[in-house]
Amino acid sequence: MLKSFDIYSQNNILKIIVALNLLLVGTGSLLYTNRLINQLETREEHYVQLYANSIAFVADTSHSNSGDLTFVTSEILEANESVPAIYVNPDGHIAMYRNFEVPLEYDTIPEAKQKYLQQKREEMRKNHPPLMVEVGNGVRGLVYYNNSSLLRQLNYFPFLLFAILAVLSVLAYISFSSSRRAEQNRVWVGLAKETAHQLGTPMSSLMAWVEYMRSDPDQYDASITDEIEKDVQRLETITARFSSIGSIPTLKEENINDVVKQFTNYLARRISTKVKMSLESQLPATQEVKINKLLFEWVIENICKNAVDAMKGTGELRLNMLALPHQQVAIDITDTGKGISKANMQKVFSPGFSTKKRGWGLGLTLAKRIVEEYHSGKLFVKSSEVGKGTTFRIVLNAN
Prior knowledge:
single chain, ATP binding, disordered N terminus, Heat Shock Protein 90, alpha+beta, Beta-Lactamase, 55% helix, 4-stranded antiparallel beta sheet, 5-stranded mixed beta sheet, 18% strand
């Protein structure tokens, strides 16, 4: 016996593989970039240490006659063109700063400039501990510093890279999901149209048999023939429904009270006699809603049959029609069945989800699609309690 091939499960596996690869690339890039940052940070610290040693050398008066060495150390001091630094002399005054600009409004006023530099020094102290500068005779100054612009960019780069990979992951997921939905739609549409096509031949034959039975009323009871004809007409309706799947339906102003009442009367005679079915309307008698009658009756049928199954053929099925604010109408369908657990509350409209052994899990999915995509309405579980029952609500625009 051949095992069935689930293309959707394969798509899920492919999505997981892509996500794992993106995660590996992102993690690898993050670790490698962090390694580079740490190396660069160490190098900059050594760079600042060299800068500090140069300051110490220049400040030490014992080297005052060594012109060449002073020139060399001055060159080292000038060589620091990237790391922001502030030198505080042994007296606690800021004697030198490099690689950042003092705003013009502070630069022209000595007191304001010193205050700005002190704030900058405090900011640097929070980022890195200061480096000691031995200026001779046990006297010490301090060099405060910040990360260079390049190091700051590298610090943010891993997060930017991770964000890019996250966006790519989301786009890949959306792409796979869209592909899956498109493929599902093609399968459902193809299946529906093929079903409609296959029903055509036996229906033609049944109509011929109905005409034959009417031609001999003495042998065939007229009431039985009428019921058979109704069921054949019902089959025609079902065929029309299946044929319309995948096409944009035509919506027409219909009296919603009449549509629901006529269909529930038909349905009440064809479900379990142990199910008490009732309909109550609080809508105006002339309330009209723009719907596709064939498809909307399918919604009512799917929800009602799902409710009968949940009650195992015994219980109460109540339909209540009421007006909502913002020119909307609602149809509540309440059963006294087994209810829906919280874990399954979000799954009931998912394709393929069913608690029945022989269920296909398509009825509520189709109902939701018809209401929300074709009628711009809403279909949701209004309330449910395990062991007591469930209420589905359909919301339609009345304007």
